[in-house]
Amino acid sequence: MNLSEIKKILPKLENVEFQLENETWVPEHFHVTEIGMSTKTFIDCGGVIRTEEKVNFQLWDANDFEHRLKPGKLLHIIQVSEEKLGIGDFEIEVEYQDSTIGKYDLEFNGKSFVLKNKLTACLAADACGIPPQKQKMDLKDLTGSQKNSCSPGSGCC
Questions:
Q1: What is the domain extent for residue 39?
Q2: Would you say residue 136 lies in a domain?
Q3: 2 beta partners
Q4: Tens digits of per-residue pLDDT, 42-91?
Q5: Which InterPro entries match (predicted)?
Q6: Tens digits of residue pLDDT in 14-40
Q7: Can you say how many angstroms the Cα of residue 84 is from the centroid of all Cα atoms in its chain?
Q8: Are 76 and 16 in contact (CB under 8 A)?
Q9: DSSP 20
Q10: Cβ within 8 Å of residue 1, ≥6 positions away
Q11: CA geometry: angle at 77 spanning 71 and 83, to 5°?
Q12: Backbone phi, then psi, for 43, in 5-degree steps?
């Protein structure tokens, strides 16, 4: 989800709710402690230099159980961050501490925001010797045309 998408969603909500992909809820008294811009410059295993830019949200579970972040307040925090930091319309990455600090992609399911698990991947699979994944097929799809195949009980096999 890009920053522009969350800005369109927030005005339509009564509450801001975050849920992990495993359906565990971020406690409703969470805080957004940071909104920022992260730029990562790196070299992949194939020698290609890459740059990745993301908008970063950090969620924090505090012990002030009466706290509730309303959509208008989060929208205001986003707008101030854009103004003060010059944040662009990039993909949002959410940091949230469950058993350790995790980084998540963000989606919206129509009611709440979902923290989607991120996966690692090789960006230069052709350069680091990873064989291409074979296409999986059902054996029934491997039979030739009917005129070149045997039918059960025909005696041709």
A1: 3-115
A2: no
A3: 91
A4: 999 889 999 999 999 999 988 888 889 999 999 999 999 999 999 999 99
A5: DUF6428
A6: 999 999 999 999 999 999 999 999 999
A7: 26
A8: no
A9: E
A10: 91, 92, 105, 106, 107, 108, 113
A11: 135
A12: -120, 130
pLDDT for 148 equals 60
> Of 20, 29, 56, which is closest to residue 40 (Cα–Cα)?
56
Which amino acid belongs to residue 141? D
Examine residue 59 and state whether it is found in any structural domain, yes or no: yes
| One-letter amino acid for residue 18 of the chain | F
**Cα 54 from Cα 45, distance rounded (Å):** 22
Q: Determine, yes or no, domain membership for 20.
A: yes
- Amino acid letter, residue 42: F
- How many structural domains does the chain have? 1
Residue found under tokens 């052709």: 126
- Classified as helix, coil or strand, 17 is coil
Q: Is residue 88 part of a domain?
A: yes
The full DSSP string for 65-111 is TT----HHHHHHHHHHHHHHH---S-BEEEEEESSSEEEEEEEE-SS
Length, in residues, of the chain? 157
pTM: 0.77
